[in-house]
Structures are given as C-alpha cells and as structure tokens.
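User: I'll paste a sequence; please echo it back and then give the predicted structure.

Assistant: Echoing your sequence first, then the prediction.
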Amino acid sequence: MKQSIALGKLTKFMGSGFLGTLKSIFTGKIEKEDFKNFLRKVMVPIASILIFIGLWHMGAKSLYTIEANYKIEKALSEQGQQAADAMKACIASGDVSCQPNTLPSPAQVWASYKTLLQDHYAIRANKKAFKEKTATINAERLAEGKNPITYTGRPSFVDQILTSLKTVFAGFLLAFIIAVPIGIVIGLSKTLRSSANWLIQIFKPVSPVVWLLLVFMIVKTLTKDSQSDSAFIISFISVGLCAMWPTLVNTAMGVASVDKDYINVAKVLKLGTFKKVYQVILPSSLPLIFTGLRITLSVSWMVLIAIELLAQSPGLGSFVWEEFQNGAIDSNSKIIVAMFVIGGIGFLLDRMMLTIQNMVSFNKNDGV
C-alpha cells in the first residue's frame, strides 16, 4: 500500500499522473472523472499520434509519386521513350541509384534508425579493439610523460547525442550561474531594474549565430596559442549566453513580486541580507525562477543545433549538416531520425526540470 502511494506521488511529480490512473483501470478501482481524464491525457494523444503517422505516410507516398513522375517525364523529354521506360523500371525495382529523393515514409525513417543503431555498435566495437590494441603503448607513453594515442575515427550517432547533451548541460549551468544571481540583485532594487532593462531588451532577442560569432572572437583571441580544441568551449558559452535571458527576467520578476508582508516579517526578525534572500525571497520566487529555468533549458536545446553546426562541434548539429551535405538516398531519413531524437530529448529535459521544480517548490505542476 505504501509503495503504491509512493509510486503515485512520484508519477505526479514527474507530470505523469496518468500512470496511476492506468493502474486503477487494471485493478478495477477507478472513478468516472479519472477515466475521462485518462481518455483525454492518454488515449486522445495516442490517437493523434496514429493520425499523424497515417497522414505522414500518405504525404510521403504522394510526394514520392510526384517526384517519380517528374523523373520519368524528364527522361522522356530529354532522352526519349526508351529512357523513360528504363527510368520507370529502375524506380519500380527499388534501385537506390534512381529512387526519388523526397520526404521519407515512417518505415524508411525506422529503417534508418536501426541502421544508425547498428553503426553505433560497430563503432563502439572498433573503439574497444583500438583501446585494447594501444593499451601497452599508451601505458609506456604515459610513463614517459607523453599524451596517449586516442581514437580518431568518426563518432557514432549516439556519441553525437552525448556530445550535444554535455554541451547543453554546460551551457545551462553557465546560464544558471550568470542569470540567477544577477536576477536576484536586479529584483531587489527598482533602480537596478530600470537601469538594466535596456540591456536585457537589447540582448534578449539576439540570434544564437551572433552570440556564436562574438564568443568565437573572444575565445580564439584568448586561446590562439593553445593546441586544444575550442569547439566545445565556444558552443557551450554561446548556448549559455543565448538562453540565459528567460531565467534572468523571471528571477528578477519573482524577487520583485515577493509579498511585502514576507519582507516586513524579515525586517521584524532582523534577518541579514543573505538570510532574507535565502530564507524568504528565494522560496517565494521559486515558481517563477523554475519557469525561467525550464524555458532556458528548452531554448538551450533548441539553439544548440545551429550553434554546433557553425562551431563544428561533433554533436547533433554537425550530424544534421553532414547528412544534408551528403545527399545520400537515406540522408533525409536520418535527418528525420535526428529531428525526433532532438524533440524527444527536449521533452525529457522539460520533464526533468518539472520533476525538480515539484520536489523543491510548494506549487505543484502536473505538466499539462
């Protein structure tokens, strides 16, 4: 019984309270209103997903037919009937050399996902074999004070996902370190809010590309004699500077809107500035601060792809650009796999922030 209650609380914290309703359905203990909520939160979204996949399949099939007809008509107009018949037969045979390169179907995207996964396992095996092969040499090099020999092969899709996650978390941490303290200071003073407002309004809408160029100029100047790869540094600083503004604004708003009665109580208790901020102001402003942090994390993940692409960091942005440049028959499918991965990770990151917010805040949010 206690475990069931604990599980219910956990799913509610994570914004997945419908899982408790699902359990009630199978045990036969469910209220009418709970069942309606379950249909609204679970069954309707599942139905919408199936409709989306069906429309996607029909759209892909239609675009495939249009592109195939175009290729056949082009062969007919440029080379004659024989070439058109050959093109038609080639397309029907499934030969990759003549397949229409357009929006892939759900089945093609799923096949590309499995290909990327198999590729990851193959690269991981190569890395393991390389590590075992160079273990003795690297031990000798380390003993001599030299750098070890490292694997320089191309990263797998999973490796690129992990690189992007590392970059976005580093950028988010930078945004948190900068935005929350500044937001608190600004929120405590009307004068500072007025004087800093112009700066926030000017820099908040600046494109991630511009932030990247600015950071690139600074980092390259400071590390021009360094042999280390600065792509990661440039990427995460650009992400942090571009995404920190929602947290800064929300923190300032949260601090400025704390109930005056709480401030008066702090004065009566003669709390010092730091105690007043820590014990009174921060707990009262947590809902708005976490709203800003959730937006910041979402923006960080969203702008990361463009920043990685330009900074040549080996993450998802680089993967998408390389596949676009590659132009292979399955490149479009792989790009859509990356699109779903990016969206899915973005959703999970938001759930993570929601869970943390519900754990530390009095205002609970079911994530709807």
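The chain has a mean pLDDT of 82. Residues 2 and 144 are 59 Å apart (CA to CA).
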